Amino acid sequence: MELFRHPDFDYHEQVVFACDVESGLEAIIAVHNTDRGPACGGCRMVPYPDTAAAVTDVLRLSRGMTYKSAMAELPLGGGKMVVLGDPRRHKTPALLRALGRFVDSLHGRYVTAEDAGMTLDDLRGIAETTRHVVGIQEKIGADGEQRVGDPSPSTEYGVYVGLQAAVAHRLGRTDLAGLKVAIQGLGSVGWKLAQRLRAAGARLWVTDIHADVLKRAEAELGAAVVPPDAIFSLPVDVFAPCALGGAINDRTVESLRASVVAGAANNQLLSPIHGDRLRQRGILYAPDYVINAGGIIDVAYELQDCFDAARVKVHVERIGVTLAEIFRRADREQLQTQLVADRMAEERFRPHRPATGAASTATG
Ligand code: NAD
What we know:
The protein is an alpha/beta fold. The protein contains 13 helices and 13 strands. It folds into 2 domains: 3-136, Rossmann fold (3-Layer(aba) Sandwich); 152-293 and 322-344, NAD(P)-binding Rossmann-like Domain (Rossmann fold, 3-Layer(aba) Sandwich), CATH 3.40.50. The protein has helices at residues 51-71, 87-90, 93-104, 120-126, 152-171, 188-199, 211-221, 250-255, 272-280, 288-291, 294-303, 309-333, 337-346, and strands spanning 14-20, 25-33, 39-46, 77-84, 110-114, 138-140, 146-148, 180-184, 203-207, 224-225, 238-241, 260-261, 284-285. The strands form 3 sheets. The chain has a 6-stranded parallel sheet, sandwiched between helices. Helix 3 crosses helix 4. Residues 357-364 have low confidence and may be disordered. Nicotinamide-adenine-dinucleotide binds next to helix 5 and helix 6.
């Protein structure tokens, strides 16, 4: 594998490989850019088919974090850590401690957090051997609830604020009463978003792969339940992807009937051409790493030891202002919103690529 010529390398500052024979640890930390501050991003443990797949994932994710934190105006850079292995079989206390030592060896240039395959308890295990861990403090969230870690309530609030900004721009309305919204995925973020939209008077269509949560949504939120494949083509105002990445792809982009796409999922566009296609079809897209930045904003305040729910809330609300700016600029420059977001982010940090290098679309 030629790392420096890897299509996703994008002039990363540092890529470090760790191997600990005793615990069986094989992990990679990628530090994309520390121009704005220490690289912060979650630790993901996934049974990757091979090391090349893990390298691609960590490079894409760490670069995405640089863009996300820059757009959220945080004093953070972008980084990520991946652990090779099956979280259900290979995760042991010894491996977590080795992981902590690995993080510690970067002396704070990289700060880790929770991601797929890692739990709060795992983070506590990592924190036994490093202090560069975030998301394990007890705090009272913007929703008034006491919790440890879990930034998803802040993510949800940011998505709600961003959805409002998109609706105001595209449909010229500030009142959500009667607004028709289709939500894909009723997990930590999607469920709370559905509750908040319902409270604002919106009409909901929802889908998930778990029948129990759909039953609850029908009973408690008066939502109409549809099968997973039917969620894309509903005649609604807003489509909110809150499940997996790649929701906007060759097939779905043509069947969408919504005027706005605004949701929490990472990597919503399967590729940049789908962002172009949304624009051509007159569908306003709220770039994923801008609208779902509430979680990293939450984590950033904890990291700086100044978590205060009211301040986090005000910061999260700026997501709406940033999106409105992106939408206006996209209209003016006749560009897709994701590309405008990438350019705006790059005005906020110093990309390391040579000045002649082509800008790349980043999602994270
Ligand atoms: P989650 O795992 O709690 O919820 C995801 C939900 O989507 C689950 O209920 C799952 O059953 C459902 N789902 C999975 N596949 C589906 C399919 N094909 N069709 C319909 N539903 C499906 O995750 P979450 O924390 O709510 O996050 C949602 C999305 O937002 C993810 O893409 C995540 O990466 C992204 N995100 C989350 C946060 C956060 O703070 N939680 C921050 C930034 C981005």
